[in-house]
Amino acid sequence: MGFLHMVAISNPEMARQVLQVQDNIFSNRPATIAISYLTYDRADMAFAHYGPFWRQMRKLSVMKLFSRKRAESWESIRDEVDSLVKAVAANTGKAINMGEFIFNLTKNSIYRAAFGSISQEGQDEFIRILQEFSKLFGAFNIADFIPWLGWADPQGLNTRLENARCALDKFIDTIIDDHIEKKKRNGDGPDDGDTDMVDDLLTFYSEDAKVNESEDLQNSIKLTKDNIKAIIMDVMFGGTETVASAIEWALSELMRNPEEMKRVQQELAEVVGLDRRVEESDFDKLTYLKCTLKETLRLHPPIPLLLHETAEDAVVAGYQIPAKSRVMINTWAIGRDRNSWEDPDSFKPSRFLREGVPDFKGSNFEFIPFGSGRRSCPGMQLGLYALDMAVAHLLHCFTWELPDGMKPSELDMSDIFGLTAPRANRLYAVPKKRLVCPLF
Predict the structure, then answer these.
(1) DSSP string covering 139-178, please?
(2) 3-class DSSP state for residue 205?
(3) CB 35 within 8 A of CB 137
(4) pLDDT tens across 23-34, in order?
(5) Confidence at 236, pLDDT banded by 50, 70, 90
(6) Which tens digit of pLDDT belongs to each residue from 129-188?
């Protein structure tokens, strides 16, 4: 396309070649003009080239931002699921916009984990900035393919990019400055019980970025304000739309397949009982619920196309792939590959009850909703926790019907293609209370 070589990978064997066998060559991420500009020239983790900086950033994410020890993130999800149950309970018997309710759940929990703020003040503005970023990330820009046409800019993308980054600067600079101020007031910083991701990142803050390959994380990486802003954007992007879309798809698929819904709710009744809410300790026993969520991720991977870029010339299955080629791994097509999956387009959670069926931990290339190899999703555990919590509570606390006597087969299941692939139309559903105990 123009000056760019594009390669599409649509089956598990080729994906294995790229993500495992030659992982070192395919570990870079391509960045469009929009992405480079909006991530402060790849100052983040998602688009940073593979190398010492990226390796230390990945370590920081796994050990600090998404670690199970960061209890605040997990707690914010539990609190927001409680709020969701309350909000749904207040609307029983009415058709409600579940897509909107679910998006608020993920937005609030990620916002709180990142900024430590439960207040709604400023949140709407931040969501507007996020939505504009999302559109700009996905927009077609002729200059990405034919660089010398950059001056033309018929869509006015350059102005929109400047405005979007300016809005983000203003918003996050204020938050970072407040945190720095709070840190000064508290001497050595807040106690661990009250930190958010900005606090965690500020412990690595310096005017000049620095990176070396030392084992001691604190001495091996220093982050500038641009790094901190770009990483916060990664977290907000990676954790809001993707998780919300997976929860909404899970509910949609179950409403379209009432027999499967019945089976999941039957399991919840047997394992948990109708006289209490689901608790974390129940999850391991909810086998069929887990199968249902896996089947949802197979049919609706959070990011349908994983983008990689070659660091040098490569040969895959006899094909020459030049350096700097853009490689798109089509996880959507791989999850529906007829050679790997029986009746691939049908929603059948029971397929995951069989022995030896692929799992999504990253080593079965027939099923890679979180990617695989070095560039797999560092926030996978937190995202899965939110998905488990939300779907289990919604199915256990309520029974669900489609509005206005709509038949399951009439439910529109089309999606929108972009960086993520959410439902084209929000899911509307009618909840009725199912438990015999008070919901809160």
Answers:
(1) S--HHHHSGGGTTT-TT-HHHHHHHHHHHHHHHHHHHHHH
(2) strand
(3) yes
(4) 999 999 999 999
(5) confident
(6) 888 888 888 788 888 888 888 888 888 999 999 999 999 899 889 888 988 888 888 875
Residue type, 369: P
Q: Note whether 435 and 275 are within 8 A (CB).
A: yes
Burial of 44 (0-12, 13-18, 19+ CB in 10 A): buried
Determine contact, residues 378/58, Cβ cutoff 8 Å: yes
pTM of model > 0.85 = yes
Local structure of residue 194 (DSSP, 8 states): G
- Rounded to whole angstroms, the Cα distance separating 67 from 69 reads 5
Q: Is 397 annotated as a binding residue?
A: no
- How would you list the strands of the sheet with 326-330, edge to edge? 6-9, 326-330, 305-309
- Alpha-carbon distance of 299 to 367, in angstroms, equals 10
- Roughly how many angstroms between the first and final C-alpha of the chain, as a whole number? 56
Q: And the tokens for 38?
A: 């909006």
**What letter would DSSP give residue 321?**
E
Task: Provide the b/e sequence for 334-352 (b: ≥16 CB within 10 Å).
Answer: bbbbeebbeebeebbbebb
Go through the domains of the chain in sequence order and give each one's CATH number.
6-433 (1.10.630.10)
Phi-psi region of 109 (alpha: psi -120 to 50; beta: other; left: phi over 0): alpha
- H helix or E strand, kind and range, residue 123: helix 123-138
Give the model confidence (pLDDT) of 324-340 as tens digits: 999 999 999 999 999 99
φ and ψ at residue 125, rounded to 5 degrees: -65, -40
* pLDDT tens digits along 180-232: 888 888 875 545 556 889 999 999 988 887 787 776 777 778 899 999 999 99
In this structure, what token pair is assigned to residue 176? 């970072």
**pLDDT-derived band at 54, boundaries 50, 70, 90:** very high
**CA–CA distance, 138 with 88 (Å, rounded to integer):** 33
| Pairwise CA distance, residues 378 & 5, whole Å | 28
User: In this structure, which amino acid lies at residue 166?
Assistant: C
* Residue whose structure tokens are 């109708």: 274
**Residue indicated by tokens 């927001």:** 80
